[in-house]
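Cross-check.
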Amino acid sequence: MLDNDLPEIDWDKMTFSYQKTDRMYVAHCKQGGEWETGTMQDFGDISISPAAGVLNYGQGLFEGMKAQRADDGSIVLFRPERNAKRMQEGAKRLGIPPVPEEMFLDAVRQAVLENLRWVPPMGKGALYVRPLLMGSGAILGVAPAPSYRFLVYVSPVGPYFKGGMKPIALKISDEFHRAAPGGSGGVKAIGNYAPGMVPSKMAKEEGYAEIIYLDAVHHRYIEEVGAANFFCVKDGVVSTPELTGTILPGVTRASVLEIADELGYEVREEKVDVGYAMSADECFCAGTAAVISPIGSIRFGDKVYEFGDEVGPVTQKLYDELTAVQQRRIPDERGWTVSVE
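Predicted model, tokenized:
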């Protein structure tokens, strides 16, 4: 379909939710073999064996990235090579043949190009790109599947948190943990996300935007905010939980750290004690879906720690710089954006 054959969507009311689009990319590989050349096809259901490794043992990974309209009229991706490398690391952890970086980037580019009409106007949202890698072959024993499927589909999305750049209320879980040392918490495995649905749902029913997880060993160090990375700012120091294999090495996380350092802030990747975080000047979470979302309050046990009803100055500065780069409203001197056309 033509790019000017625009879908009937009220972009201003669009939420972060699924929307069927036109085309998707699909490729196949046998265990021990090479990936076949992928093809574009009409978006639709896929056929898979009930004994598929992904269905029985969760042998699957996914990525999340965005294509969006930039200030110069182009449609750009943000640091897609980092998503490609992260999926490769995850594939090694789960016994899946890694998708070559060049193939990954080409698949993403094709999926965006054949769904151009679904890219929202600048500032109205983005085209969320979902690469998916799974053990599609049938297997009964607990072992890597005999064959694999790599596909990429897209969906236009609005903001992850309703209300835009407004401080959100979060709750620290004293009952659930996201991951443990030695597990798969450091890769974007599909099995990491289902266990978080109930804690998240419970928090939202109590009026919170999302849950915060503590580490599974000491129960005192902050790890992640649902599906986003956590940051806090105290006395001009920007801190975030260090990568120890239990949290996701987010692309937005890495970008925020680089930007903060270049803007002159002291940056620390460390164990973030919950007491230290609760005494911070500002807190925020960051991720591809959320971008940067300021945290206005955090409930921990019987106490509620307030960080203010307004966006903190450091949070705002980091958000402004990051989004300006992503939309090419300032020169991309870091080479982070990639045009799809």
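The chain has a mean pLDDT of 94. The chain has two domains: 11-157, 168-326. Passed to J.P. for a second look.
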